[in-house]
Design brief:
single chain, 168 residues, alpha/beta, 7-stranded mixed sheet, 5 helices, 9 strands, 22% helix, 23% strand, globular
């Protein structure tokens, strides 16, 4: 299927990668057995100067709990919200520990799972976390310097996937 000379390297917990001034740290990479395949998502922290982005993939509260118990520094200015804003991720304790200024949610307009859920949007709103959502904003681009983060679009709102569908 793919042509060329590729070398596959599997990441593991505590791996650190450098790309110029950017550092990517693998905070968690779970192996079997886990209850849910979403929990095999690698959790990575991307750092440039004073700015941090925490990327959680589809990880659910089981992984969040283990990450909290690990004692690792998970604070970040930007949180890529886990599992498209479903009820299975973004626990109150996890959001409090990350304490992000911004949240990114990747989800489609009127998706069949009704993501993001009302419960998660209420958690984000109650913490005054500014939300950027692909169902409202389209492609969201972050511009990160060592001291600042800006976006290519205006923030979304705190509507759930169901409420947004009704609004459209």
């Amino acid at each position: 299927m793919y042509e060329g000379d590729y070398k596959v390297k599997f990441i593991k917990e505590d791996d650190v990668y450098y790309m110029g001034d950017v550092t990517i740290t693998v905070l968690e990479q779970f192996e079997p057995p886990l209850d849910e395949t979403n929990n095999y998502s690698a959790i990575m922290k991307i750092t440039l100067g004073e700015m941090d982005v925490l990327v959680t993939g589809d990880a659910e509260t089981q992984v969040e709990k283990e990450l909290l118990q690990s004692g690792k520094n998970i604070s970040a200015e930007v949180l890529k919200v886990g599992h498209h804003g479903s009820n299975t991720s973004s626990s109150a304790a996890f959001l409090d520990a990350v304490n992000p200024t911004y949240a990114l949610i990747s989800c489609g307009v009127a998706n069949k799972h009704k993501h993001p859920t009302e419960k998660i949007m209420e958690r984000l709103e109650s913490r005054d976390i500014i939300v950027y959502r692909t169902d409202e904003c389209g492609t969201v681009v972050l511009y990160i310097t060592t001291t600042d983060i800006t976006f290519n679009c205006e923030p979304g709102d705190y509507l759930s996937g169901t409420e947004l569908k009704e609004k459209v």
